[in-house]
UniProtKB/TrEMBL annotation:
InterPro entries associated with the record: Agl6_TM_C, Glyco_trans_2-like, Glycosyltransferase_2, Nucleotide-diphossugar_trans
Protein name per its UniProtKB record: Glycosyltransferase involved in cell wall biosynthesis
Highest rank taxon of the organism: Bacteria
Amino acid composition bias (Basic and acidic residues), ranges on this chain: 399-413
UniProt key word Transmembrane: yes
Organism encoding this protein: Streptosporangium sandarakinum
Region of interest (Disordered), ranges: 397-420
Domain (Glycosyltransferase 2-like): residue spans on this chain: 4-163
GO terms of molecular function: transferase activity
Chain segments annotated as transmembrane: 228-255, 267-289, 310-335, 355-377
Domain Low-salt glycan biosynthesis hexosyltransferase Agl6 C-terminal transmembrane region: 283-376
Length: 420
């Protein structure tokens, strides 16, 4: 079978029959060998029977959520290709051919673009049309090397085997973003075709909740991009803290009538520590995600882990600790010159703050080196080739044992018993 059209369904009695008939008619008109599969997520309004009567196959998916329903349908699909779309009659299931043609041409994922195809009046709330979708799609393109203009279009087609290999995890509305992001990071062939969006045919409110689901999409994009979540903010903070801290260590800095002194030095120190920690978290996240298969392995991170060994981390951390302890010793000498009495903060803090910062960062470096070494321990993973080779060896051994037993059975009794 070439194509399965998967529609997630939760109480869509008003529209599911229309959607099924449109999809089946499209496949019939264009000679496509296919089926319509309804992934029912617990409907109580008779949607299942209406879908069956219209010619669809219905599978029940226990796990609640948009992503869970779709993954249940994708796993149950019989087609080489899958086109997914909502069962609310907002997408045009009579125009599936452009998706199929792109898939036949070798695409792994074909996204619909509602902004290029046309959005009918009243089909999309202004909040989604002018803020939510454009902003989240822009962030997706910024964080990941993707040219997709409509990250959240619900009508999309893909090779079933390609998407199953990704191991998609999310069960809610953010499933739409995960599919695009994971496909892009895995180097799949992702394309886009224009599609239209019409007002849905339901009389009830939609399942989508604008702010809740928008936040879930944004949170997913951030969590899958350690560079933008940790690395870039961390590097900015570290740079600002280092520049300001270095300047203020040698005395106050005046900009016009503004005077920056030791209070600002303390803030610069905090920025350096926070930025350094965020940068380390970017490395931790990339290494962990690559080792566990959440993100493709980054050669630059792997090279960093190989180059920055535990021993080198301990050496760098030790040198920072020595610098910090040296600075603290100098501050004690300075205190001694004051006969261990009251100190002038504008003088003493210029020694204490940089020294304490170096000491804190030394322990961060040592702990980070230890943690990255633990994360970088590679577990032995059996590949399909390993499994096949092991099975072949076991089969060969079994045949050899069976041949040995057969030879023993055929050997004359006298020869086994020895000379009389």
């Amino acid at each position: 079978m070439e194509l399965t059209v998967v529609m997630p369904c939760l109480n869509e009695a008003e529209t599911v029959e229309t959607c099924v008939r449109k999809a089946l008619a499209c496949m019939r008109d264009h000679g496509i060998d296919g089926e319509v599969l309804i992934a029912d997520n617990g409907s109580t309004d008779g949607s299942q029977q209406l879908a069956r009567d219209a010619g669809a196959r219905v599978v029940h998916v226990d796990a609640k959520g948009y992503g869970n329903a779709l993954m249940g349908g994708i796993r149950a699909a019989r087609g080489k290709y899958v086109i997914m779309g909502d069962a609310d009659d907002s997408y045009d299931f009579t125009s599936l051919l452009p998706f199929v043609e792109q898939l036949r041409d070798g695409a792994d994922l074909v996204m619909g673009n509602r902004f290029k195809g046309g959005i009918a009046p009243g089909a999309m709330p202004p909040l989604h049309r002018y803020l939510g979708n454009p902003v989240l799609s822009f962030i997706g393109r910024l964080f990941f090397p993707s040219a997709i203009g409509d990250f959240h279009c619900g009508l999309r087609g893909f090779r079933r085997d390609s998407i199953l290999r990704l191991g998609l995890q999310t069960g809610g509305m953010e499933f739409a973003s995960e599919m695009v992001v994971r496909s892009t990071l895995s180097g799949l062939d992702v394309r886009e075709v224009p599609t239209t969006l019409s007002p849905d045919g339901r009389s009830r409110p939609p399942h989508l909740r604008s702010w809740r689901d928008g936040w879930r999409h944004l949170r997913f994009l951030l969590l899958y991009s350690p560079r933008w979540l940790f690395l870039i903010p961390g590097m900015i903070l570290m740079t600002l803290g280092l520049v300001a801290g270095t300047a203020l260590t040698f005395g106050p800095v005046y900009i016009g009538k503004l005077a920056f002194d030791v209070d600002t030095l303390v803030g610069a120190s905090a920025a350096m520590v926070i930025g350094f920690q965020a940068t380390l978290f970017a490395v931790f996240t990339k290494v962990y995600a690559a080792e566990e298969g959440f993100l493709p392995e980054d050669r630059r991170v792997r090279k960093l882990v190989d180059v920055v060994t535990l021993e080198k981390g301990l050496i760098v951390g030790g040198l920072l600790a020595l610098a910090g302890l040296g600075g603290l010793a100098a501050s004690l000498v300075h205190w001694q010159t004051r006969s261990f009495g009251t100190l002038i903060p504008s003088e003493s803090l210029r020694l204490v703050v940089p020294s304490a910062t170096a000491l804190i960062m030394s322990f961060q470096t040592i702990f980070a080196a230890l943690f990255v070494s633990i994360l970088g321990i590679r577990r032995t993973k059996e590949t399909p080739i390993d499994v096949a080779a092991s099975a072949a060896e076991e089969a060969a051994e079994a045949v050899s044992r069976e041949d040995g037993r057969a030879a023993n059975r055929d050997e004359p009794a006298g020869s086994r018993g020895g000379a009389a």
